[in-house]
Amino acid sequence: MTEEVGLxxxxxxxxxxxxxxxSVRNPATGEVVGVVAAQSGQEVAAAxxxxxxxQPEWEAMGAEGRKxxxxxxxxxxxxxxxxxxxxxxxxxxxxxxxALIDPSFAVDLLGYYARRAGKFLADEHPSxxxxxxxxxxxxxxxxxxxxxxxxxxxxxxxxxxxxDVIPALAAGAAVLLKPSEVTxxxxxxxxxxWAEIGAPPVFTVVTGGGETGAAVVDSVDYVQFTGSxxxxxxxxxxxxxxxxxxxxxxxxxxxxxVLADADIDRAAYGxxxxxxxxxxxxxxxxxxxxxxxxxxxxxxxxxxxxxRELRQGADGREPEHELGAMANHTQKDIVARHxxxxxxxxAKVLTGGKATGVGTFFEPTVLVDVDHDMxxxxxxxxxxxxxxxxxxxxxxxxxxxxxxxxxxxxSVWTGDKARGERIARQLNAGAVNINDVFANLFNFALxxxxxxxxxxxxxWGGAEGLRKYCRKQAITAPILPxxxxxxxxxxxxxxxxxxxxSAMRAAGARGIRxxxxxxxxxxxxxxxx
Length: 529
Ligand code: NAD
Description:
The protein is of the alpha/beta class. About 40% of the residues lie in helices and about 15% in strands.
């Protein structure tokens, strides 16, 4: 991974981009696995100018023309899955299975949006709201923002970028991607794939840290951001200044509610997976658990026993571990702080509880005797911790689940699906999975978006996942042959005005007021009130 590819520059070199180089490290070993350029604002602006040149042709190609390229990219991802997983692993040290999810997730989403874009972006011809409008053919057309800027975090270095790049390209926009400076190598591979298939140059990756990201926000026509709530607020402010639309997918503190009628084995396995997959570095990880008192002991015993069985370490190409390292030291330190804070305030650690001392590994951890005075129950941890709290009943569980500034997703574990759905509708969360975790994420027909401080808009989801990258254009065209003048054009006259107002009332008002021609005449004559 030290060869010169795209924006990846020679290992140890500070060249490439006027801002110097950023070393990318394997977090398990500290080894430098690549160096990328820290690109300047001028370089970002130049990249956007270049994209603007090619975007009109990409848009004009139509959804069917673009489908051909997107499906070629899908083939490329499938052909290169193992090598891509190697790159993902090199910069994250996640388990082989988790690394393989990255390209596979992108393949799945590609199929969905490449094949459906034609239908999702087709012109619409709504019925006029009034009989007066029936003389026109009405069209709503979806026209892409010319250049979409996409800024992504480090937790899924290939999937996070791909999941936003693909719908934006499918919509007909050109895309400028700025991946996390912690894990930029996989995104550079994605751009390499786009070039290798010979696709039009409407997708470019720029590398660098926050300043490069800010330059992206300053240059593009729409911003899709995935990352922390703090950065999301900065980006929203910058977009407001330019009056540029944006969509934000931010942090979360997702609750799991385990009710007394649940299948406790399934709940324990599911909560463990939901909290510890990718070492808890998933936006929709289970971050806190509320368990009804009658099943609390059984659930905690089963959860703890299962978590103790999990294997942690650095995989090669064979899947040998369920948990890998944290993506960086900063994130590991946040997890340690949350656990220490909980212990200091009276929580008990049933398993795990500390960094292993090797690289950025942090042991999978179950905490009990926790409450909402502790950071582990209120702040986003983004790590392998499962704090579990006993609650008296469903009402207390719902109240505590909603006691959060976030609202990304939640899960409810119950033997009664109708009860689960009823509770789902009481939760302040963009998605609720009943007796499961992450299921919403893998159903692209559903909106993927956070409420409250977890986001603005939705990342994808059915037709809206493409239409968000488009400006809606209203087009009217006459149905009947046109005359030299429309009756209401200049010059004005009282007769015309009475006719126009009467017609609009007759079409839009209700009851006797529809026919109040006398009122109209009085109004026109200045006698109305
Ligand atoms: P982060 O906010 O620190 O960085 C995200 C990206 O923003 C990086 O590419 C970074 O370089 C860039 N950036 C930083 N400052 C910027 C600025 N001023 N202008 C423009 N870009 C800027 O987030 P992170 O630590 O990389 O990722 C972890 C966070 O991402 C967690 O909070 C997690 O919940 C969130 N996340 C959310 C989702 C979701 O779909 N809701 C998915 C994955 C991760």
